[in-house]
Design the sequence.
């Protein structure tokens, strides 16, 4: 048990909205009392978390006066100091208020788009005051139920204009945020713009300052649509654009469940942890999840402990995978000819093209080769089940 106790250096974070989730859903009212932000900071620190993230209105009510806002923020900053916690990431709630029912940055109403920019600027001010270095944009309402409502080209154009505006505001204020787009395919709207990591990466190249933008992929979002989250994260890492990550649990083809990390598909979670650890990712490990609706407040803290503990267990499993002689022997055999051809095919030159043209490949032998992936997968399963 003691081997998997989280510590600050593990960089685990939770959102105020995650452990603060009161269990309300479309079919039922709240089942838990509200937990104050100060209490959340205190309890998470005691559990070994490094930081806490927030939307603007997780901390400051949308209708708070300037004086109320300052008092709330002052109390929160004191709690961060007292309990040795940080705010690595901030974001804006652009999805809850009725004003955003047709989107925020992509709304058909220009007044709504202007208000969304204003709200985000003020939220960026708050994030900077709290020490955040990463700023996430989740376009939860940026989409449609019917394409009769707007031309998707207009929606993307409006999205781009707003993000370009905010990037300039960031530079003018000297905040130097790393902006991370968080893609999602659907829910709460029928279809959402920039639904996948690949779509977000493509869109970033069209922005005025693409170097400021990366992605914040979420396990549930790619998984709910049946995609491979590990591959999406690998693409983001390869592009140098993994600025933040949301970890949770999700069954494919379901609504956005946001279960405890590790609650579903341990093999996929294992390969995700393995990728993050072996790639050298140094950002926050953020759990964007919440306790089952069946739980009271004690269950909320069990949920938080479980997220962190599972990550640490899978981290140890990844180390065992790398040290397992039988597993590594199979991988070595699979890649045994890599050096023979990698230098030739990694970059075009006339010499390399000529060499390839003169090479006689034994196509039949290649077709008959077995890769031993069945055994490799079984050994991985046995390692995860604790029998290796």
Sequence:
């Amino acid at each position: 048990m003691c081997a998997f106790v989280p510590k600050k250096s593990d960089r685990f974070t939770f959102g105020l909205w995650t452990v603060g989730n009161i269990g309300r859903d479309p079919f039922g009212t709240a089942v838990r009392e509200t937990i104050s932000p100060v209490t959340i900071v205190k309890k998470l620190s005691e559990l070994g978390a490094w930081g806490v993230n927030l939307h603007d209105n997780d901390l400051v009510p949308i209708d708070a006066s300037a004086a109320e806002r300052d008092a709330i923020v002052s109390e929160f900053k004191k709690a961060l100091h007292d309990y040795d916690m940080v705010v690595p990431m901030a974001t804006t709630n652009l999805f809850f208020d009725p004003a955003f029912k047709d989107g925020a940055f992509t709304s058909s109403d220009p007044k709504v788009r202007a208000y969304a920019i204003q709200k985000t600027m003020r939220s960026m001010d708050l994030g900077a005051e709290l020490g955040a270095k990463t700023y996430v944009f989740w376009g939860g309402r940026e989409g449609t139920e019917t394409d009769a409502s707007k031309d998707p080209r207009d929606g993307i154009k409006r999205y781009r204009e707003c993000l370009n505006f905010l990037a300039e505001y960031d530079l003018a204020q000297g905040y130097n945020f790393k902006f991370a787009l968080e893609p999602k395919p659907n829910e709460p709207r029928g279809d959402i713009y920039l639904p996948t990591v690949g779509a977000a990466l493509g869109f970033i190249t069209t922005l005025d300052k693409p170097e400021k933008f990366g992605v914040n992929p979420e396990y549930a979002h790619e998984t709910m649509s049946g995609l491979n989250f590990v591959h999406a994260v690998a693409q983001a890492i390869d592009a140098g654009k993994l600025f933040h990550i949301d970890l949770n649990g999700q069954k494919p083809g379901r609504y956005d469940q946001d279960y405890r990390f590790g609650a579903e598909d341990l093999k996929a979670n294992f390969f995700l942890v393995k990728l993050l650890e072996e790639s050298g990712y140094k950002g926050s490990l953020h759990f964007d999840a919440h306790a089952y609706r069946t739980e009271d407040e004690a269950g909320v803290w069990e949920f938080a402990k479980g997220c962190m503990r599972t990550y640490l267990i899978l981290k140890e499993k990844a180390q065992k995978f790398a040290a397992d002689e039988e597993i590594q022997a199979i991988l070595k055999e699979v890649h045994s000819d890599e050096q023979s051809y990698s230098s030739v095919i990694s970059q075009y030159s006339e010499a390399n093209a000529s060499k390839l043209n003169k090479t006689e490949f034994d196509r039949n032998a290649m077709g008959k080769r077995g890769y031993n992936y069945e055994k490799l997968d079984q050994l991985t399963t046995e390692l995860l089940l604790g029998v290796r």
Remarks:
- Residues 297-323 form the longest helix (27 residues).
- The first strand starts at residue 12 and ends at 15.
- DSSP finds 16 helices and ten strands in the chain.
- The mean pLDDT is 97.
